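#struct-help
A.M.: can someone run this one for me? Single chain, 380 residues.
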Amino acid sequence: MAGPVTTAYADLATGGVLVADPAQRVAAGLLDDVLAGLVAEQPKGFLGKLFDKTEPARGLYLHGEVGRGKTMLMDLFFAAVPIKQKRRVHFHEFMDEVHAGMATFRKSPKGKDADPVEAVVKPIVRSDLRLLCLDEFHVHDITNAMLLYRLFEKLFAHGVTLVATSNVVPDELYKNGLNRQLFLPFIELLKQHCTVASLHAERDYRRMKFAGQHVYAFGIGPEVRAEMDALWLRITGGVAGAPGVVESIGREIAVPAMAMGAARFGFADLCEKPLGSRDFVRIAHHFDSILIDDVPQMDRTKSDAAKRFILLIDNLYDRGVKLGASFAAPLEHLGKDDRTAFEFQRTISRLDEMQSEEYLAKGLRDAEVVKEEYPHPASP
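D.P.: on it. Structure tokens below:
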């Protein structure tokens, strides 16, 4: 019998939201296996709590090229898992949290032999977390490489199941990295606790969404809105979307509409609220496509909004996020504030490139660095 993920996937295909792909159906079945293991997993008994150790349900490491549907399948899986003790986060965001926790611990009074890794794991396991979903698992630097074995050894020992998506097979993680031989035990640990599966879908579905599309509309009024509505339905496969949130530094950013890896905002939602570059990084990591309605001309009365818009476009561009937007004026006339004129020229150049076929055909890039070029008192 089909499980919840396979059923949800079939419903999307039947409704015309996506074109059914055999490789995606297989991956949905593997995610159903993980889900079944989580449901069947017995809660910790007295002895389990006493020793704080249990064997987690077997996880999944799903790898494949960009645009093959990994994020969409993770969406379906996470929504279908019927337990509350679950969390989904981008891999680099998760590791940033780990490093921040370790740094805070090192600054606090502690015993001579205190372990900072154990210190960051404790609050995770105290929350009874059973499922950790990590998007875009990829190891670049030696700091993360040397930490991962100790971190996940403890998480697995405390009963956490891992489901991860990645563009690379486990054996190529941290490829050619410094002292890579010290990283190899983590790869073996990962294979012990996760089924490794490849997603060889036939098409780059992310690229197909934008093929031949005009992604920018200019002017105001119902015709422009209708053009944006049509583009939104094109990239979501006809799904209207629903409100949601993106977690950022302990708070929530409201998303007016999100569906199928895409999000839709008004200009005011992003640039007239106290958001900073770290918030925009979070947004760029959560969605592969973003639509922004009603981008106005920005004169001196909108200096703060213009600065946020510059930061937003920088982060979306660095990540390779696909952008659709409606503008009140042609790009060359958007920036009317002499205080941001120089930086705005870079933004216009990037906006020009972001509507090109070459940019739209590329996959997401791994952007880890956060640049706060316009610190603002209201920004985090």
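A.M.: thanks! The CA atoms of residues 245 and 254 lie 5 Å apart.
D.P.: also worth noting: The domain at 4-198 is CATH 3.40.50.300 (Rossmann fold).
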